[in-house]
Every structure is written in structure tokens, then in C-alpha cells.
Write a structure and sequence with these properties.
399 residues; single chain; alpha/beta
């Protein structure tokens, strides 16, 4: 198979095909692997030339990669990521920005940028990514894809370069719901059937943060979900504390990033691009007292969401506060948008809950995702919902 470099989705050092089986539930399908995951005999670059130069070639593949190979899928290359996966934009100072095939002239989102771009362009059937603060969910919204972040810890993320381990999750993209579900069944350990879904809630405060344009664009998609589940109830998740939730995520994430990579950064002095270097510099100077306060808040958020979203209930939120920003956006504009996005995305991260982004709307001619969150361990309920919504008899009604 000849892959195009035109969209910048693949890593030059990871252009290799791997297939270990020709049968299985994913036989005949191709996939890309975010260059955060180890593939035996292939360098792992983590979006950083300095990481690539200072780490040995892995001798074993990450369990998630091996699982997909064992299911019969064929890996066709490693895909670009933002540096050390610490960005939501999809822009890499060293390797460039993959094209967003669904919205040319706009960012693809990150950090799983290459996986999203390759899937959206049809260069692979599906792709593996990782999601800490939104790195699968946000690119899925920007690129018009299905994107899944599972229950934290349910799929092993060992063999991948960590970012913030208490949030890091394996994730994946597909262009259609049925394939997203098939990949999920291969990756997810069997936990028995999910609880029957009997209730849905709309998070009014998160839609308020996203704004009127996003809320209006997603209204027909919410109606489709209601057609399946029943009339939605409404909830105010954060009681006016969304900014505090977001800031707690940032503090905990930054502390874990420095704990994980601080020694390497100090020893190697990597040449980070704009934004990434600033985050590492700030992470080195965090106040331990503030981190502890943030961790206590996370526990409160986890308890709150477990109460609001028990098994059998689904929570509907906007994936993003808008469509993908323009490539010409300034650093200030991108950072402001990132801050709003994190306020939406941090809820599932704090709670360790699964979240799926569904490509059910457009705004200004660009994709816009609707997200659904389920209780921990109820990942299959989200995959089943996506398949039901995409069924031929369902009214797609895209905005």
C-alpha cells in the first residue's frame, strides 16, 4: 500500500507495515498508530526529535497495538503527534501540522493529530490515539470522526509514552460507528453487557459555556438521541465551578508531566516548540499545596459525576466550544480556545468516565461533535448508542 505524505499524517521514521495475522475480527482492515505507542522494531518519537534521539528502539509492541494486530488488522504506519502529546492543537514545531481533510485551512486538533487526519482522509480504516485532556475527542470533533475515550484504566496504556498517568487513556478513531464498535470490542476486556440505558441528561452549564451557536447546531443531534432514549432531563454539573474544574485538571496534569519527564527535560534540554516549552517551565515551579487542593477537588468531581451519571444514564455535552480554529489563529487565540475546550473536556477525565464524540453536526460548513458520557465501565453502552444512531432507519438530520 502506498501512503500519501500530502496531508502530513505519518512519521517518516514510522513508515512500516506490520501484520501478524490474516484472520480475526479486524481482518482486512488497516490502521495507523500514534507515535506515542511502541511498535516492536520501530522508533518511538513522541513528536520530539530529542525524544527520538535519546531513546532506544522498542523491542516489544504496546499491548493495545498488539491487540489490534492479534485481531487481524494491518498497521500501515505511525502517525504524527504534538510534542510529548502536550497540546490540543495538532501543530508540531518540528514536523508540521497535518491537514484537516474535513476543514482545510483549520487545525486538525491534537495531540492525536496524525491519527485523526489519516482516518478522515481515508488513508486508514481506523487509527489508535491517546487521550489525556481531550486528544482523541477534540480532533474527532474537528475532523468529523467518531472518537472514543474509554473508562480510564480499562485498556492498558503501557508501552506508550506517558503524559499524566492518572488521566492517560488509549483512544481510537473511525469514520463509521460500526467500525468504531468493532475496534472497541477488540480492545476492551470483556466485562459483560452494559446496563440498559433508560435516561439521558443534558449538561446545561457545559452547553452554556460552548455558546448559542454550538448549542443551536447540536440541537437536532440531541433530538436524535432523545428519539432513542426518551426525553432528556437537564443537569448543572459544576454549580458555577467549571473554571475551577479546568484549573484543577491543569494543575494535576502539569504536576504529573513534570514528575514523569522532569529528569529527562533537565538532562537533555530538549528544543521544545512554542507553548510546549512554556508548559514544562511552569510545571517545574508548581506549588505542592495547590496540587493537593486540586486533587481533593478532583475527588469531589468524581463523586459528583458518579452520582449524576450512574449505570443506565447517559450525559450529553458538546465535545468542543466551536469548530476547529483557523491555521492562521494567533497563539493567544489558540490558548483561549484551548482553555474553553479543557473546561468541557475535563469532566470525564476527572471522573475516569468513558466519553464518545459523535460527528452529528456542522457549523459554518465544518464538523462539530456531540459527546456522550457514561458511567465507569459502561463503554459498550456508548458504542451501542453510536451504532443505533447511525442505523439506516435513524433520522440523521445533520445540522
Amino acid at each position: 500500500m502506498v501512503l500519501s505524505y500530502d496531508i502530513g499524517a505519518f512519521c517518516a521514521h514510522g513508515m512500516i507495515e506490520v501484520q501478524t495475522r490474516h484472520d480475526g475480527p479486524l481482518a482486512g482492515l488497516t490502521f495507523g498508530v500514534k507515535d506515542l505507542f511502541d511498535v516492536a522494531g520501530v522508533p518511538t518519537g513522541a513528536g520530539s526529535p530529542d525524544w527520538l534521539a535519546t531513546h532506544p528502539v522498542p523491542q516489544a509492541s504496546a499491548p493495545a497495538v498488539q491487540c489490534l494486530l492479534d485481531a487481524g488488522a494491518r498497521m500501515v504506519g505511525k502517525t504524527q503527534t504534538d510534542e510529548i502529546a502536550w497540546s490540543l492543537n495538532g501543530q508540531n514545531h518540528h514536523y508540521g501540522t497535518p491537514v484537516n481533510p474535513a476543514a482545510p485551512g483549520r487545525i486538525p486538533g491534537g495531540s492525536s493529530s496524525g491519527s485523526a487526519a489519516a482516518t478522515a482522509a481515508g488513508l486508514v480504516d481506523f487509527a489508535l490515539g491517546s487521550d489525556t485532556g481531550g486528544s482523541v475527542r477534540l480532533p474527532a470533533s474537528y475532523c468529523g470522526l467518531y472518537g472514543m475515550r474509554p473508562t480510564h484504566g480499562r485498556i492498558s496504556i503501557s508501552g506508550a509514552v506517558p503524559l499524566a498517568p492518572s488521566y492517560d487513556s488509549v483512544g481510537w478513531f473511525a469514520r463509521d460507528a460500526e467500525l468504531l464498535s468493532r475496534v472497541g470490542r477488540a480492545l476492551l476486556p470483556d466485562a459483560g453487557p452494559a446496563a440498559p440505558v433508560s435516561r439521558m441528561l443534558v449538561a446545561d452549564d457545559l452547553f452554556g459555556l460552548a455558546g448559542d451557536a454550538v448549542s443551536t447546531a447540536l440541537a437536532p443531534a440531541i433530538a436524535q438521541v432523545e428519539n432513542l432514549i426518551g426525553r432528556a432531563g437537564h443537569a448543572d454539573l459544576a454549580d458555577g465551578r467549571l473554571t475551577e474544574w479546568r484549573d484543577a485538571f491543569r494543575l494535576i496534569q502539569s504536576s504529573e508531566v513534570w514528575e514523569t519527564h522532569g529528569d529527562w527535560v533537565t538532562r537533555v534540554g530538549p528544543a521544545f516548540g512554542p507553548g510546549i516549552g512554556d508548559r514544562f517551565a511552569a510545571a517545574a515551579k508548581l506549588d505542592p499545596g495547590q496540587i493537593e487542593v486540586a486533587r481533593r477537588l478532583r475527588e469531589a468531581v468524581r463523586a459528583c459525576l458518579a452520582d449524576i451519571v450512574p449505570p443506565g444514564t447517559l450525559l450529553v455535552i458538546p465535545t468542543a466550544p466551536g469548530i476547529a480554529p483557523l491555521l492562521s489563529s494567533t497563539e493567544v487565540e489558540l490558548e483561549a480556545f484551548r482553555a474553553r475546550a479543557l473546561a468541557l473536556l475535563c469532566a470525564a477525565g476527572h471522573a475516569g468516565m468513558p466519553q464518545i464524540s459523535l460527528p452529528m453536526a456542522t457549523l459554518e460548513g465544518c464538523p462539530l461533535g456531540l459527546s456522550v458520557i457514561a458511567a465507569r465501565g459502561q463503554d459498550e453502552a456508548l458504542l451501542d448508542l453510536a451504532v443505533s444512531l447511525a442505523a439506516p432507519e435513524a433520522d440523521h438530520g445533520r445540522a
